[in-house]
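As described in the Methods, two query proteins were run sequentially through the folding procedure within a single session, without resetting any intermediate state between them. The first query and its resulting structure tokens are shown here.
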Amino acid sequence: MKYWPGIFGALLTLVILLICTAAVPLPHVKSILAYDRETDINQPDTTGHPSNDQLAGEWKVQCSCRIYSKGQVAGTINDAEQSLVVVETDSDGSYRLYKFPGGFSEALPRLRKTSETGYAGDGTVRGITTLVRQNVELDNGKITITQTIIDTSSRNTLSELTCTGTRATSELKLARQDPRVEVCGTDNASTTVNKDLARRYKFAREFSDGLAAVATQSSTGDLKWGFADESGRAVIPLIYDVATSFRGGLAAVARRYGKGNNLKWGVVEKLGPQVTPYVNFDAARILGEGFAAVGYVVPGHKGLQWNLINRENTTILHGFEGFACFVNGRARTSFIEGNVIHGGYVNKNGDFVPEEN
């Protein structure tokens, strides 16, 4: 019992402290919470985009590229026209850069904030043999983007692209592009559209490979395309801005980036999954017989280079000059080695067969 007065006194002191604390505002706590939402630009707002974001949006840039050979600068290429770079944010607060009319490369690095004005990220292509590293620096409304491509085995730099510019305040008139998508015919195409399908969706095309491209229209008038089966069930979600018909189990899809008609391409498979992990390629061709090709820019190379892929997104051939349609198990193709063009065919096993002289 002799301890009760001491315990009672301690409890009374604690109650008095709690009452006083509740009555006094805590401005330092408010300032910490305000920073989390208002000043940290990596904190996404309720729409999924970072608040007060300095990087996301459209930039008009001028680019130049240094090409290396055996670790030494072999030449410099300066773009005659301006390019558009669209920066989009992911749900995790990271960034991805899309360049038009030609992209940065086949890689799509995920950039994260590294300093108050800096961002960086990297990705690999050709397995892990080629590293693509991107850095962004902002300075008083100006942007500098640097992309370095490195051969990981020799650690030699292959190319270094630098783009500088400012915010795009109006639509940038880009150079005209050649057709960036092609489908080699159609399989089992029907010229009629299921009436129930036409009533369910805003637009519905004919069936091909058992699926029809269908679209809904948003309140702003934009169409979002996907694919439905004959029962009307959406097999591939309606999230794309452009969609082709199917052939050999594959179709090309595109997403629009920025305010203009700036498209990047990917490939989907008829059972539902998106074959290419991202919709980030400059071009796509559906070749038939279960194969497709995706095209992309390689700094210092004239025109696009192409990868041959199958329905599992296995890269069969990498860095070729193009692929024709598959006919009877083979497709015409070519690649450059040094200054020599090698022409021939690729078969369904992925073997390159040189053309007979």
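Immediately afterward, the second query was submitted; its sequence and tokens are:
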Amino acid sequence: MPLSVLLLVGLLACGGSAETTPEAPAPPAKADTVGRSATAAPAVPGAGPWARVGTDFVEGGSYSGTVTKLVDYGAFVAIAPGVEGLVHISELAERRVDHPRSVVKRGQQVTVRILEIDREQNRIGLSMKEGDVPPLVLVWTGIAELHKSFFRTSELVTRLAVELQAQVVPPASVHIRFDNGWHKGWLQLQLRPGTLRRPIGGEATLIPLQELAPITTALATYRSSVAGRYDMRVESFHVGIESDRGPVRCVFGVGGLPPPDGRTVSSCVEINSQEHCGTEEPGGVRFSPEIAEKIRACLS
């Protein structure tokens, strides 16, 4: 047996249960200031990189960013090239902050939550406070208690819950499982009917699977964070989305070099344990009418 398999055997023991994150505290009050970019904002609202605001970046969503500038009243954070927002000094921490430099520094990577978007002025108000944590259900299969404690880490669960809230109606349900027979692990969102915040578009047989990337990216980030903190073997877990609609069960996976970062959704979909690969075209992946109908049912 290969050494990599021997290392993974015994990683996780059998078990099966579900749990929900505890009830969140009341959300903090929003800052009065909505952030303007530290650089000159585009003359036309929503122009250039700001066109992504409201689609890729939404109110309530949590995103990684880089501190670009410190001012007396807060810190500017870039969440994408050309897209910056302000973390008001009152939103930098739960405690009182005298100056932003006591909390962050220029160039630091931080996680921020979007409080408010002003599309007319190309402004975004951000927060580094945890705020109101949406509920998240963790479903276990074949996971040992020690590794359950790794996946339950409050900071990581909170970040995942907030990122998923921007994509699916809470409570999101994440199935974490390990198969000792196959020596494989999976980390998949269980997509409940009618919970996608933005229904999948496209024409009948052309399905824009890449629209699922924010979900798979959040799952991959969560997996990698757990692996980096506790056990690198967790990095081998496959991430994806599973959906059951009556007699049809779909599994959507990701592509890319291992371990994939979740940003590329696979053009192959597993339907009732059989893989069906479509043809990539501009705007989506083309499937036969019969397969496309089943995939759309799974994403409904």
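Residues 48-127 form a domain with the OB fold (Dihydrolipoamide Acetyltransferase, E2P) fold (CATH 2.40.50.140). We note this only descriptively and draw no conclusion about the first query from it.
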